[in-house]
């Protein structure tokens, strides 16, 4: 779906993307990162809005440097900002952008009506877009991204400014688009639950670099249970025995360690390792792994470097 | 039950060719501008000089009728002879036989050989004069058909340029400024159109309105005159006027359009862009006049954007010059302004706002 190779983008002396490389297949990919991580820059680079200082990439097989028009033909873009054309009804707004994509006027008008119903703006079709609420503006932006029937959607903060209900509906729409309609989706956001709801794959950006990239289920470790353990006694020996039993562990703060246990197993081997290493277990808590942990850890990792 | 199936459908049609993608922007821009009352009023007002010119042309092509009307000013006699077209004829020698035959044919003559004016009755044209000349063995050096000449069209377009200026402010000022203000540029440029197509689309809107008050009425006046004269000699004699109308209109339309679009791209407010445009036109002229009067040097008029138009127009139509200005410099300044505006547009029209 998207392949990026050693992409570097600079704004003057500021490096916005630093030697970024990854390849994602979709159908739904999350682009996570704190503010200023380079998410929007990456999307604008994919659209050919920015000239990279170095590197290249491709979107659906089209080179982002040499074939920007082919990329834009295949891609729909929902920008982060509130964008609109004033004095235009929602239908006219969509028809206009449909025509700009080369769709004949009659087809564009018909699609405008269909898509407005699809995104939940059917009743507001003839209202001027500047009178829309924040949530409706997000929906109309999604609608214009869909008007030319793209193969991939680049969504930059799609739930920005939406109330909880609207946000759920928007995420439901995005999930439906990626799973039922066969349209790939790249969701750029700083909201982890959005990515968890919609995506199967995630790329975490931090300070213009890829901090983590992978399948969300694998990153979360959902095929394993996680326990927070604190032992008193011979901690090294305890950890050695855990490894011998095929368990992974990670050091946490305050003498705590995180132990990853296969889904089908319980805590028996942890207690046995403690017994064999003559240690006492003083703390054992089952912890539900979340993407937030992965995110926080990857960001921390980036900062420590 | 909803009219539409409320689900997303794939589009299986074929996209139109890329060649006229810019026209979508132009078409929408024209429709939007026509919704503005000010634009409609401007276009209507710009029609008045056109109508007045049509009446004037009718009078000039029927020269005899007008001259009699002016001399007699009243009575039934006015209606007599209110027809006919005057041709200027230049012959070799005294051509006595030729003049006699013209009189016998009831053709009025004003002036004396070798150059004089003849009044041909309606329904006849230059062929009658040529045939009489052949019969009397007279050699005609030239026949100038009736009609208004270069200075008329030059003055007409000069007058229309006032409407052009006002239309620039009303139609052009907000064209890109609104897209900048409402951050719509990234929506446009995320679609399969190039920056150039976007600029062309916006340019098309301004060019349409400016052409409606300059090029279109100018060409129409020329054609109306040709029809009123009813003589192919007219085209042969005045063909170049059509070219002059086209080129002068092109110079003022293009320089005006690029200027307003560049100013519009530099601002988020249509009002600021309009103020900038007004400053370029009025302020540069005021400064130029001030310097010219205090130094008695006409070259200072090159500062004035407006007078550079006039200077190039005077050259194109070959009329008497108002100021002793090197017209080539005026043209260079206008072309330079277009280039600078094009560079501004190329730099400002982009899908990403870079804050350094």
Which key features would you list for this structure?
heterodimer, A: 305 residues, alpha/beta, Rossmann fold, Alpha-Beta Plaits, 2 domains, 4-stranded antiparallel sheet, 14 strands, B: 356 residues, alpha+beta
What does this 3D model show about the protein?
The complex is a heterodimer of chains A (305) and B (356). Chain A folds into two domains: 215 residues, Rossmann fold (3-Layer(aba) Sandwich), CATH 3.40.50; 66 residues, Alpha-Beta Plaits (2-Layer Sandwich). Chain A is α/β, with parallel strands linked by helices and 305 residues long. In chain A, the strands form three sheets. Chain A has a six-stranded mixed β-sheet, sandwiched between helices. Chain A is built from eleven helices and 14 strands. By secondary structure, chain B is an alpha+beta fold. Chain B has two domains: 238 residues, no CATH class; 82 residues, 2-Layer Sandwich (Alpha-Beta Plaits), CATH 3.30.70. In chain B, 65% of the residues lie in helices and 6% in strands. Chain B has a four-stranded antiparallel β-sheet with strand order 2-3-1-4, covered by helices on one side. In chain B, α1 packs across α9, α9 packs across α11 and α10 runs antiparallel to α11. The longest helix of chain B has 34 residues. Chain B starts with 20 loop residues before the first helix and ends in an 8-residue tail after the last helix. Chains A and B meet through α2, β6, α3 and α4 of A and α1 and α8 of B.
Helices and strands in order:
The complex is a heterodimer of chains A (305) and B (356).
Chain A: E1 2-11, E2 14-24, E3 28-32, H1 39-46, E4 54-59, E5 62-63, H2 68-74, E6 75-78, H3 90-100, H4 105-118, H5 134-146, E7 152-156, H6 164-179, E8 184-189, H7 192-198, E9 201-206, E10 209-215, H8 216-220, E11 224-232, H9 235-244, E12 248-251, E13 256-262, H10 268-276, E14 280-287, H11 291-304
Chain B: H1 21-34, H2 37-61, H3 63-72, E1 85-91, H4 96-104, E2 108-112, E3 115-120, H5 126-135, E4 140-144, H6 150-172, H7 174-181, H8 185-189, H9 195-213, H10 215-229, H11 232-265, H12 270-295, H13 305-317, H14 327-348
Antiparallel strand pairs in B: 1-3, 1-4, 2-3
Helix pairs in contact in B: 1-9, 2-6, 2-10, 6-9, 6-11, 6-12, 6-13, 7-11, 7-12, 9-10, 9-11, 10-11, 11-12, 11-13, 11-14, 13-14
């Amino acid at each position: 779906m998207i392949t990026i190779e050693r992409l570097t983008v600079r704004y003057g002396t500021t490096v916005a993307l630093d030697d970024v490389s990854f390849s994602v297949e979709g159908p739904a990919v999350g682009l996570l990162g704190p503010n200023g991580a380079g998410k929007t820059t990456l999307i604008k680079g994919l659209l050919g809005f920015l000239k990279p200082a170095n590197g290249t990439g491709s979107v659906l097989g089209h080179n982002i440097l040499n074939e920007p028009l082919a990329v834009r033909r295949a891609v729909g873009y929902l920008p982060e900002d509130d964008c609109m054309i004033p004095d235009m009804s929602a239908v006219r707004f969509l028809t206009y952008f449909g025509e700009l994509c080369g769709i004949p006027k009659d087809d564009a008008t018909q699609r405008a009506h269909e898509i407005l119903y699809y995104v939940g703006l059917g009743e507001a079709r003839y209202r001027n877009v500047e009178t829309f609420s924040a949530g409706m503006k997000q929906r109309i932006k999604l609608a214009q991204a869909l008007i030319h029937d793209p193969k991939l959607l680049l969504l930059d903060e799609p739930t920005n400014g939406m109330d909880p209900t609207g946000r759920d509906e928007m995420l439901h729409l995005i999930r439906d688009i990626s799973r039922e309609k066969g349209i790939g989706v790249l969701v750029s956001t700083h909201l982890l639950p959005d990515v968890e709801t919609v995506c199967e794959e995630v790329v975490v950006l931090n300070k213009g670099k890829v901090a983590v990239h992978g399948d969300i289920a694998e990153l979360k470790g959902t095929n394993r249970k996680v326990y927070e353990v604190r032992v008193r006694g011979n901690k090294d020996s305890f950890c050695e025995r855990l490894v011998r039993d095929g368990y992974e562990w990670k050091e946490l703060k305050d003498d705590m360690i995180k132990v990853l246990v296969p889904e089908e197993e319980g805590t028996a081997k942890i207690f046995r390792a403690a017994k064999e290493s003559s240690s006492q277990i003083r703390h054992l808590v089952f912890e539900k792994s979340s993407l937030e942990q992965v995110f926080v850890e990857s960001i921390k990792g980036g900062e420590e470097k | 039950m909803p009219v539409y199936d409320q689900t997303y459908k794939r589009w299986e049609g074929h996209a139109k060719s890329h060649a006229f993608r810019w026209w979508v922007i132009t078409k929408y821009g024209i429709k939007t501008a026509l919704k503005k009352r000010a634009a409609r009023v401007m276009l209507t007002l710009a029609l008045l000089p056109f109508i007045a010119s049509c009446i004037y042309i009718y009078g000039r092509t029927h020269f005899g009728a007008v001259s009699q009307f002016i001399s007699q000013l009243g009575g039934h006699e006015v209606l007599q002879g209110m027809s006919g077209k005057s041709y200027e004829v230049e012959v070799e020698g005294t051509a006595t036989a030729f003049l006699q035959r013209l009189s016998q044919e009831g053709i009025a003559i004003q002036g004396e050989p070798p150059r004089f004016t003849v009044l041909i009755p309606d329904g006849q044209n230059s062929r009658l004069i040529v045939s009489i000349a052949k019969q009397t063995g007279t050699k005609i050096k030239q026949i100038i058909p009736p009609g208004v000449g270069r200075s008329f069209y030059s003055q007409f377009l000069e007058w229309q340029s006032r409407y052009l200026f006002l239309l620039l402010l009303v139609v052009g000022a907000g064209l890109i400024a609104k897209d900048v203000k409402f951050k719509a540029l990234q929506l446009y440029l995320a679609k399969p159109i190039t920056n150039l197509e976007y600029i062309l689309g916006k340019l098309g809107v301004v060019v349409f309105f400016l052409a409606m008050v300059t090029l279109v009425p100018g060409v129409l006046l020329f054609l109306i005159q040709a029809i009123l004269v009813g003589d192919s000699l007219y085209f042969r004699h005045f063909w170049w006027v059509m070219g002059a109308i086209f080129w002068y209109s092109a110079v003022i339309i293009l320089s005006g359009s690029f200027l307003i679009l560049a100013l519009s791209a530099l601002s988020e407010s249509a009002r600021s862009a309009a103020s900038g445009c007004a400053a370029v036109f009025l302020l540069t002229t005021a400064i130029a006049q001030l310097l010219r009067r205090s130094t008695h040097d006409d070259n200072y008029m090159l500062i004035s954007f407006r007078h550079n138009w006039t200077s190039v127009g005077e050259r194109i139509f070959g009329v008497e010059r108002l100021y002793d200005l090197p017209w080539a410099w005026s043209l260079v300044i206008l072309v330079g302004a277009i280039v600078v505006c094009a560079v501004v547009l190329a730099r400002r029209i982009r899908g990403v706002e870079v804050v350094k």
